[in-house]
Amino acid sequence: MIKKKSGLGTDDAQPEFEFLASVPDVPGLAFRGFRGNEDFSAMHTVIEASKKVDGREQSESLEDLLRNYAHLTNSDPAMDMVFAQIEGNVVGYGRVWWRKDAEGAFIYGHLAFLTPPWRGMGIREAMVRHNEARLRAIAAEHPVGTPKAFESWVTERERDWTTVLENEGYTAVRYSFEMVRPTLHEVPDAPMPEGLEVRPVRPEQHATIWAAAREAFRDHWGFSEDEWDSELASWRESPTYVPDYWQVAWDGDQIAGMVLNFIDTAENKDNHRLRGYTETICVRRPWRRRGLARALIARSLGMLRELGMTEAALGVDADNPNGALQLYESMGYQVVSRQTCYRKPLHEPLPTKRSHST
Length: 358
What we know:
It is a single chain. It contains ten helices and 13 strands. The radius of gyration is 23 Å and the shape is globular. The protein is α+β, with helices and mostly antiparallel strands. The protein is 30% helix and 24% strand. The chain has helices spanning 38-54, 62-69, 77-80, 123-139, 159-167, 206-217, 225-236, 265-271, 292-306, 324-330; strands at residues 29-32, 81-86, 89-100, 106-114, 148-155, 171-181, 197-198, 247-251, 254-259, 275-277, 282-283, 311-317, 334-345. The strands form two sheets. A nine-stranded mixed sheet has the order 1-2-3-4-5-13-6-12-10, with helices on both faces. It has a four-stranded antiparallel sheet with strand order 7-8-9-11, with helices on both faces.
């Protein structure tokens, strides 16, 4: 258990917390730990209260939140969350997690949501410092001498979160773009490469398809084996999981590439649009540089149009090594927003020198 520092106003029934800096002097402010399912409604309220100011278009229902937390990787809410309260009402919360990337580095992720009226008072900064303290405790269990860094992602309209991270010593290390094709008409002609075919997806193939996608994404920046299977487990329980929309190309009994399309009906309703997502676009190495991704995207756009959609969207790493950004631009997608990955090195203490008697 993390020990309490005097004057934190922590609920006695909850885990006690140690912060790296003094708690802001805000009347009625207290911090506490996770209380179980009763907290999810408050968390959802915080998310909804922040959406407009932060420019977040994603729709996340209470059911979505519960499902996502049922499939967390390397994150235990009982130990890895902190809640900020004003006079007993939750106004913000933070959570931490970790992963090991394909290059062997340990990445310690965290978030700190806070409703807009309480920003700029030091509350979010206190949660960041608590997150880092918890992550340092986790990192102490990992091998010394391996690269380690704190990490958090920010959308371009989350100005408060950007300011907090930069003031806490984080720097931008990577960017990703959200791209939208504003119309599904005039799709470029892109025939399937010779010898490959798209077949209807059968239920017994879902795990095989996901495994092929995992293999294809291994050389992408930030890839982590830890999170891959849990993402599928969570997605399988979501209304957006409709394998009938997937476009999967086969070469005999081998998967060559895919686009795992989906439609988020709730998000479309909230944003008054008809958008489909062309996501998890990947081609396995033996079948690259043959025009397969282009052909699968073209098929996906046509399918989404037939389903009544009027636009398509995707996310892409700005520095994708396979030229994905240029491909998507050639297919009519346009950059509409940017996300930034912020990191800060986690410096380990130097080993204590031993004295040598003579």
